[in-house]
From TrEMBL:
SUPFAM superfamilies for this protein: P-loop containing nucleoside triphosphate hydrolases
Residue ranges of domain Phosphoribulokinase/uridine kinase in the record: 24-157
Keywords: Kinase, Transferase
Full protein name: Uridine kinase
Any one GO molecular-function label of the UniProt entry: kinase activity
Organism whose genome encodes this protein: Thalassobacillus cyri
Highest taxon of source: Bacteria
Signal sequence residues: none
Length: 199
């Protein structure tokens, strides 16, 4: 099933990033819906066909814990609004990715809870894959040429978490699931995606 869906997407987009143009593809979906795996498989398919591409993982660009935990805001708000520097990423990534030769971004190190700036060179043409949570939020959604949404039931996604993480059910209820519900209600990501993959 995964391979079929990846092949279907690759067939749609493989000829788009040509003539010194980049084509930006989003892989959206809620937590543990399979976004990283899907993006990886898509990259393998594009590489096999000698199509230039670059993949960005939005979880590489979250902010330090002190900026997203215990801020005085509700937990779901911290997760949705503060997990990333939303406006900063719009300026440094999304506004630059189509026409600039490189982008300079903060990359998060989970072990040290620090961020380090790195400059990424982009292919002159080809496909830009961006995978991550809440990609169709109002600040980012207009920068994509094609959007995929991975639709996976909450129960299935929850079971993909490690048992020790699942034990803290209140964090899922108050932080993750409320933010997901807000995103679904506000942005209707499945309805607005170009392609929906059932998970």
């Amino acid at each position: 099933m995964l391979k079929e869906e990846v092949d279907k997407l690759a067939d749609v987009i493989k000829d788009k990033g040509t003539d010194h143009q980049r084509y930006v593809v989003g892989i959206d979906g809620l937590s543990r819906s399979g976004k990283t795996t899907f993006a990886s498989e898509l990259g393998i398919r594009l590489e096999a066909e000698n199509i230039l591409f670059r993949t960005f993982h939005m979880d590489d660009h979250i902010v330090e814990r002190g900026k997203r935990y215990d801020t005085g805001q509700e937990e779901w708000y911290e997760y949705y609004r503060l997990q990333w520097n939303v406006k900063g990423l719009r300026r440094e990534l999304f506004e630059e990715i189509r026409n600039s030769s490189q982008v300079t971004l903060d990359f998060y190190n989970n072990n040290s809870d620090t961020r380090q700036r790195r400059t990424i060179t982009l292919p002159e043409d080809g496909i830009i894959i961006i995978e991550g949570l809440f990609l169709q939020r109002s600040e980012w959604k207009d920068y994509f040429d094609y959007m995929v949404y991975l639709d996976c039931p909450r129960e299935k996604r929850f079971l993909r978490e490690k048992e020790a993480i699942r034990a803290n059910i209140s964090k899922f209820i108050n932080r993750y699931w409320k933010a997901e519900e807000y995103y679904i209600d506000k942005e209707q990501p499945m309805e607005n995606a170009d392609m929906v993959v059932e998970g």
